[in-house]
Amino acid sequence: MGTIVTIDVYTPAGEASDDIRRQLGAARGILQQADAVFSTWKPESPLSRLRRGEITVAQAPAEVREVLANCACARELSGGWFDPWAMPGGVDPTGYVKGWAAQRAADALRASEATGAIVNAAGDIASFGALAPGTPFRVGIADPAARRRLAAVVCLTGAIATSGTYERGAHLIDPRSGQPSAAVASASVTGPDLGLADALATAIAVAGVPALDLIAGISGYAALIIGHDGVQQWTAGFPLAPDSAR
Amino acid sequence: MRRAPIVVTATAAGLAGVLAFHTSPQSVKISSADEGNSQPGPVSPSITPSAPAASQSSKPASRPSPTSKPKPKPTSPRATSPAATTRTVDGPTVNYSYGTLSVAVTVTGSKIVKVGIASLNDDGNPRSQSIDQSAIPVLESEAVQAQSGSIQSVSGASYTSAGFRTSLQAALRTLGIS
Q: What tens digit of pLDDT does each residue of B108-135 get?
């Protein structure tokens, strides 16, 4: 399964300067490299070789060690509900890597003249800046039940990840049972880092409402879940837009 | 200060590697067409809120597609609102991750009122169909809502967005809107 990343860059002149083109190239390189290293579909990717036991973590590229260390942190923060080591078929940090890579791509653009950017990796978004001073980006959350609609709108500062089974079927695994799980229809997490937000969204989608308290305890992060009955619940600080449908 | 976005579609795969890398990043300059607009600027990455057709601003003249319908000739310029004209055009068929697609866009005047899929071939792969069924309605919604200026992006499913945008942009060019 592949992922398309779209990058929207906001500039004062509405044009891509050489500086921005250069940083866009860097962002693309980051995404391409992440795919080359972490693809579970490419048999020769370092992650695939690690999963087959052909190399050890110590022999893997530095970014593999970094990602696995971050995943261990995310596992702890999520109370074990996000656990790449409990996936069938061997360690699988996929639930973290996509957000991690998109965040790094956004960070590359942050170093440019751009006044803002939105990096959308298949529905998980890393951003910086704003539409205009004092006017934050507004991002919709797709309605899992009626996907022509938005279930909510957030005023985004930083990142938002949304996890749910409606995108790709039952792909979320409960690390405690090893079985597919979908406690809620959709779970979104906002925060400064998309990698962690992605992991936490995956955790809540599996764990359900009780995991909201976990997120509430993580500084800078907030969550909104949509139940199979369409009912929305969110933690304090979730940046719903004032006009968001509820 | 007016801020206008450029959009670049890139592909990558945090998850897996069925995607081709687009060797030529697609950059779209968005012109600030409507000088009277007090909004912060065009907010849609690839769908430009445009001036009414009567004021084409600095944009080059559109190249009507051979398949587009002849436009009704205004008998009295500016006597009637361009918003009175509703047109629909299909974008070109483009490749995306799971096959090919083309979009159909309907505009009234220069405002997008509907975006849909004109053709879709995902080779019948169940996974592709599952993704298409979830992603495409989101993209349709995003396209219409983005032009309204209400949102800049959607968190959820957007798997086919690069191909979708490519076809949509071409369709809008055909209509002389983008």
A: 776 777 777 777 777 766 656 655 665 6
The CA-CA-CA angle for residues A57, A58, A59, to 5°, reads 90
The string of pLDDT tens digits covering residues B4-42 is 344 443 333 222 111 212 222 222 222 222 222 223 333
Element of type H or E holding A166: none
B158 in contact with chain A, both atoms CB, cutoff 8 A? yes
Give the closest of A94, A138, A142 to B157, CB-based.
A142
Cβ pair A1:B162 closer than 8 A: no
Query: Pseudo-torsion of CA A151, A157, A161, A164, nearest 10°?
Result: -20
Q: How many whole angstroms from its chain centre is CA A55?
A: 27
Q: Which amino acid is at A178?
A: G
Using an 8 Å CB-CB cutoff, list chain B residues near A122. Answer: 15, 157-159
Q: If you write DSSP's letter for every residue of B69-87 in order, what string do you get?
A: PPPPPPSSTTTS-GGG-EE
Query: Helices A18-38 and A62-77, interaxial angle, to 10°?
Result: 80
Question: How far apart are the C-alpha atoms of B64 and B45, rounded to whole Å?
Answer: 23
Closest partner residue to B30 (CB to CB) among A14, A21, A36 is: A14
Three-point CA angle B163, B168, B172, nearest 5°? 155
Tally of CB atoms within 10 A around B167: 27
Amino acid identity at B37: N
At A157-200, the pLDDT tens digits run 999 999 876 544 445 667 766 666 677 889 999 999 999 999 99
Q: Please provide the average confidence, as pLDDT, over all residues in chain A.
A: 86
Give how far A71 is from chain B: nearest CA, Å. Answer: 15
CA distance A31 to chain B (A): 5
pLDDT band with cut points at 50, 70 and 90 for residue B139: low
Q: Give the N- to C-terminal CA distance of chain A in Å, as an integer.
A: 33
Rounded to whole angstroms, the Cα distance separating B2 from B39 reads 9
Cα(B2)–Cα(B32) distance, integer angstroms:
8
- Both structure tokens of A44: 């020769």
Question: What's the pTM?
Answer: 0.68
Q: Which of B32, B97, B165 lies nearest to residue A2, judging by beta carbons?
A: B97
The DSSP 8-state label assigned to residue B22 in this structure reads P
Quick one: pLDDT at residue B142?
64
Specify the 3-state DSSP secondary structure of A160: strand
